[in-house]
Design a protein that fits this description.
Length: 236
């Protein structure tokens, strides 16, 4: 899982370099697909429940699962979430980042990116044997809500290993001390999705693209994280 995690990391860094005003989300898809092939991995998302691409690219009010398209051009001031997964020798890695496009991103959107990433880091700090999934969710939720943003509840993180999605579900909200206890050897994909406005989301008619109900902007960061005796080990 270190190896699949490392591939995911390199793919995201390659895509980050291709994010600029004027690039289409299909351009990013092509960069990612080429890099995954070059590194000898297999994309985890393409073909998963019929999903057509190796990346999810979700712009502004899109929360997750945006489908790369030649028709979607990034503009200066946008934010774009890039989510990808791969499988290598039977083991999966899954990670996402959200990137500011160009130099005109509004201050509130920049804060949204920073707070969402901080909420993932505080969740990772909560990971250790004996901690609970409630501790992890509460760490995200407290970080986000203290800044006036809201946590998406309709989608959650997940266990990951020989499948992309395994038990347990990993909510981005919760109560400390509640929920399943973490044990060394578990691996979790922790993935806060955070909205500037309300938490409600809806899926568009394409069956995938998920947007905020109120049109507010949304950010998403994700890491694949192993529980070890020494605490969290970030694999991506
Ligand atoms: N990171 C997301 C997840 O873990 C992406 C899945 S997209 C899909 O659930 F296409 F694979 F469904
Ligand atoms: Co995931």
């Amino acid at each position: 899982m270190r190896r699949s995690g490392q591939v995911v990391r390199e793919v995201l860094e390659q895509v980050r370099r291709a994010v600029k005003p004027g690039a289409t989300t299909l351009d990013l898809e092509r960069v990612a697909a080429a890099k995954i092939g070059e590194l000898g991995a297999t994309p985890a998302f393409r073909g998963y429940h019929g999903y057509p691409c190796v990346l999810c690219t979700s712009i502004n009010n899109e929360v997750v699962h945006g489908i790369p398209s030649a028709e979607r051009k990034l503009r200066d001031g946008d934010i774009v979430s890039i989510d990808t997964g791969v499988v290598m020798d039977g083991y999966y890695g899954d990670s996402a980042i959200t990137i500011a496009v160009g130099s005109k991103v509004a201050e509130k959107a920049q804060k949204l990116l920073a707070v969402t990433e901080q909420s993932l880091q505080s969740a990772i700090r909560a990971v250790k044997p004996g901690a609970t999934l409630g501790d992890v969710g509460a760490a995200v939720q407290e970080t986000v809500e203290a800044q006036g943003f809201s946590v998406v509840r309709d989608f959650v993180g997940h266990g990951i290993g020989t499948h992309l999605h395994e038990d347990p579900q990993v909510p981005n909200f919760g109560t400390r001390g509640r929920g399943q206890k973490l044990k060394a050897g578990m691996v979790l994909a922790i993935e806060p999705m955070v909205n500037e406005g309300g938490a409600a989301v809806q899926v568009l008619k394409d069956g995938w693209t998920t947007v905020t109900k109120d049109g507010s902007w949304s950010a998403h960061f994700e890491h694949t994280v192993a529980v070890t005796d020494k605490g969290a080990l970030v694999l991506t």
